[in-house]
Specification:
five-stranded antiparallel sheet, Arc Repressor Mutant, subunit A, alpha+beta, disordered N terminus, five-stranded mixed sheet
Amino acid sequence: MTRLTTQPGKNAAALRTIAPMQQLEGENNLPFEIHSLEWMQKHRWQHQDTPRRNNFFMIVWIKKGSGVHLIDLARYELTDNTVYCLTPGQIHLLKANEGAEGFVLSFTNEFLSLHENNFDLLFKTGLFYTFSHTPAIRLGQELEMELEELLEKMQREFDNYYLLRGEILRGLVKIFLIYLSRESEITTTGQAHTRNQELTKKFLNLLEQHYTTRKMVTDYAQALAVTPNYLNEIIKKVSGYPASYHIQQRIILEAKRQAAYVETSMKEIAYQLGFNDITHFSRFFKNVSGVSFSDFKKKSSMQVAMD
């Protein structure tokens, strides 16, 4: 994959855009895709020049190569045998140097049967919803061989249209995620902790759906049939931060995404996030992020332009 370069004359405003929400382009209505980095470079080259927000889960495995992966507002240097797990709604841009090798795996909630037991693979293992942890996972040599074999099987099934193709792919993805979760240091066990994790994943799922309209812990506590104090306590045990912190951070994350990548005014962003009073939003942004909205936008404009 070729490193992206900025042509002379392009200004910061031209770069500060987000491509429209990307829908999964799976063939034959199958909400799943697997491609090599080389294939993406040849057939999806337009994905490499603009930050994109996806509506699906994505796993990027850099087998070999260097470059940069921008995920939301963080910058990660690419290294060999590193896996990145992205959740729906995240904004990312992959800039890999020429000769990089790897795979890009994409699938939707529905493909993995989110409402069945597979739900745990997305919310409980820490692969995707990782709180303060890095989304990058370094692979050991033994696991690398296991995962590569699984991906080769996925590629063969995806490229053909055999009977029960979707079922086989779903099973292979599930095995892939289980192996990957074993490599993640944040995977934990224990019956009591399992109950806490169950409540946490339900809270995070609700938060992702309603953060623009529900901004109080009591809103989520009521939906989950627990008291606000109990919800704060359990979420803090699992993640290190209370529920109120995650609500504020989710709102701020979306505000920062919009400020960094979209030419949108503070008033428009405030309205999109459910704030009717721009002064209230401005004060909220500074109190939570520690910097004013205008200062953040100015600084992020310079950073995006340099990238």
